[in-house]
Design goal:
By secondary structure, this protein is an alpha/beta fold. The protein has eleven helices and 15 strands. It has one domain: Rossmann fold (3-Layer(aba) Sandwich), CATH 3.40.50. It has a four-stranded parallel β-sheet, with helices on both faces. A three-stranded antiparallel β-sheet has the order 6-5-7, with no helix packed on it. A two-stranded parallel sheet has the order 1-2. The radius of gyration is 20 Å and the shape is globular. The structure holds nicotinamide-adenine-dinucleotide. Nicotinamide-adenine-dinucleotide (NAD) binds next to helix 1, helix 4, strand 4 and strand 9.
Length: about 350
């Protein structure tokens, strides 16, 4: 598993233990994610951690002669959506070149896994599909222009946003990050077709919950809001605060990814993983403020290029693998808050605001 020491890698590590004889986590322990470059306590003790950069062929050439991976779980990535707009090369290097370097090494060493599971992203959809309420026409408007955003035209007129469905929604990324995640999917799908490997492509909505990096300022809006509210400050909301997101608890993502690993047959298309519902960012901000007894959130009117207006998905495809989410956002937030308190006891500085 690449990126195995990250949020999702640690969360799935215990589940993997009951499925595989040997589990190897490859991770560079990126300083933006890991405040200190040490093995995370949440990574299951039976998982071997190998520290190298997935973009370096030498690391793979050192590792692969000794192992015969049956399944590869590809999680390593640069994940900052906003950051990807100004650091495009870094995102493309790790996410796109890194994926290709890994696949080339597998081919070079003749280590052909039966399945490659990719943690893909909702970011591939960009602004996704919208419906004209008058005509019923489905429109993929693309990306909001600089001029549109400068005029505070957050939505696309009267169009209504639709939940994304991998089978029908056109992937048209609005950020460099989204474009690299789409490239990862396509590279893996093409490689797998050539080598007889089953690609298992998950498109995850906004994952949150215990284990999320509390120090990474570039990703994880829910953890970020919790940090602000915990400091008794008012959460700033971008745009008009009415953006929709599907916040899916890490526990549900773990069970969803396991359903994709366990399924005897997996379709080559992507599987959306979310809660099948959307929450306004201002509403999750308000709930978090209440949990921490913090002042109400405020609309800042600021915006970021690369951010999409609304994001949610239909779980119809993954429901076919007998999976459904179990945690509504209210229950998930309470779990996250409880976990944050345990972290606070251990490392006060994790929660100080930059
Ligand atoms: N968390 C979410 O909301 C979310 C949503 C959609 C998709 N995803 C995808 O899920 C995957 C895992 O995300 P996460 O939330 O666990 O992120 P994370 O940042 O917590 O974990 C990523 C891990 O990859 C490692 N890494 C980064 N660059 C590396 C490199 N060059 N070589 C080796 N290791 C490297 C980091 O050290 C980190 O431990 C990513 O591919 C991400 O795009 C996450």
């Amino acid at each position: 598993m690449t990126g195995g020491a990250g949020f999702i890698g640690c969360a799935i590590s215990a589940e993997l233990r009951s499925r595989f004889e040997r589990i190897i986590a490859i991770d560079i322990l990126h300083p933006q994610v890991h405040k200190t470059p040490v093995r995370p306590a949440a990574l299951h003790r039976d998982v071997e951690l190998q520290r190298f950069d997935i973009t370096e062929a030498a690391g793979w050439d050192w590792l692969l002669p000794d192992i015969f991976p049956d399944v590869v779980i590809h999680l390593a990535a640069e994940t900052g959506t906003g950051q990807s707009m100004t650091e495009a090369a870094r995102h493309a290097h790790v996410n796109v070149t890194g994926t290709a370097v890994m696949l080339e090494a597998l081919a070079r060493h003749r280590r052909i896994p039966s399945r490659i599971l990719l943690a893909g992203s909702r970011a591939v959809y960009g602004d996704g599909a919208w419906e004209d309420p008058g005509s019923g026409e489905i429109i993929h408007p693309g990306t909001r222009s600089r001029a549109q955003l400068a005029r505070a035209e957050w939505d696309y007129g009267a169009l209504r946003p639709l939940p994304s469905k991998a089978a029908v929604t056109i992937a048209r990324p609005a950020s460099v990050y989204g474009a690299t995640k789409l490239a990862q999917e396509q590279i893996i799908q093409a490689w797998c077709a050539g080598f007889g490997t089953a690609p298992a492509i998950a498109r995850l909505q906004n994952v949150y919950g215990p284990g999320q990096s509390l120090s990474n300022p570039y990703t994880g809006i829910v953890a970020f809001f919790c940090r602000i509210a915990r400091a008794k400050k008012s959460i700033p909301l971008y745009e008009d605060g009415k953006m929709l997101r599907d916040f899916v608890l890490i526990d549900d993502v773990v069970s969803g990814l396991m359903a994709m690993l366990d399924a005897p047959e997996i379709a080559p298309h992507a599987y959306d993983i979310g809660t099948d519902s959307a929450t306004r960012v201002m509403d999750i901000g308000q709930r978090i403020a209440e949990l921490y007894d913090a002042p109400a959130p405020h609309v800042s009117g600021r915006y970021r290029f690369g951010d999409v207006r609304h994001a949610s998905c239909s779980n119809a495809a993954i429901a076919g693998l007998k999976w459904r989410p179990r945690f509504p956002v209210e229950a998930g937030l309470v779990r996250l808050q409880q976990w944050i308190e345990t972290q606070f006891g251990q490392a006060e500085d994790m929660l100080t605001l930059e």
